[in-house]
Design a protein that fits this description.
Elements (H helix, E strand, L loop, with lengths): L7 H6 L5 H12 L1 E4 L2 E4 L4 E2 L13 E2 H13 L22 H18 L1 H5 L7 H11 L14 H9 L7 H4 L5 E2 L5 E2 L4 H13 L4 H5 L4
Parallel strand pairs: 3-4
Antiparallel strand pairs: 1-2, 5-6
Helix pairs in contact: 2-3, 2-4, 3-6, 6-9
């Protein structure tokens, strides 16, 4: 009897030897958010064993999706291809040491989770893997090892994120990170590699068609 093959990105998120997975755990463990009037560790809301959540799950995001956020923060657009590949400490961007990466990535992503705690707890579009991957690409230029060539501060990123509509509605996300099926239901199951770049462009370039769409303009 043969076992069921595990999707590559899910397998990576279950591999504790993987630097991206360890970093995702550190991010999840670093912050607490309000849930029904109680402060709980964000890690409690992260499902570590599924590729997709079902309506009955108490968690709001998968570890593989959180890992996609971490890996694209680390590598930028190049991280989309690495979302289903191992990340080793000797493969970090030039000039980036493991301890430096941890010191830069964990607080910034933890702060973003706290700032968008409501969108996470309500399972808004921000919890979709492709959206988190695109968000990581947008965060990447703020990293000290980024070779983007542009001076990009956290304040600049926060201004770009302020106007985004995170509701899971077709008028904001159809054609960007989701597709509307024949039943009229919006489906965010598209892959990180398929949609992450489009999401990043929509976040970073608000004057574009998709940039205006996700802001409800």
């Amino acid at each position: 009897m043969q076992g069921v093959a595990v999707a590559k990105n899910l397998a990576m998120s279950m591999d504790q030897r993987d630097f991206g997975t360890r970093l995702a755990h550190l991010v999840a463990d670093s912050v607490r958010i309000d849930v029904d009037g109680q402060r709980v560790p964000f890690a409690r809301l992260v499902n570590v064993s599924k590729r997709q959540l079902s309506a009955g799950d108490r968690e709001v995001v998968t570890l593989s999706a959180l890992r996609a956020l971490v890996v694209t923060t680390l590598y930028g657009r190049g991280g989309l291809a690495r979302s289903a590949e191992s990340v080793h400490e000797d493969e970090l961007p030039v000039g980036a040491r493991p301890e430096q990466v941890e010191a830069a990535v964990v607080p910034i992503l933890g702060d973003l989770i706290v700032r968008h705690a409501r969108e996470f707890t309500e399972r808004g579009a921000i919890t979709a893997p492709a959206v988190l991957a695109g968000l990581g690409i947008a965060v990447h230029p703020t990293m000290p090892w980024s070779d983007s060539g542009a001076v990009f501060r956290m304040d600049d990123l926060l201004r770009l994120l302020d106007g985004i509509r995170w509701e899971r509605e077709a008028k904001y996300w159809d054609g960007v990170a989701a597709k509307t099926g024949t039943s009229g239901r919006l489906n965010f199951s598209g892959g990180v590699k398929d949609s992450g770049g489009r999401v990043a462009d929509a976040i970073l370039y608000p004057a574009t068609e998709t940039g205006r769409q996700i802001r409800g303009l």
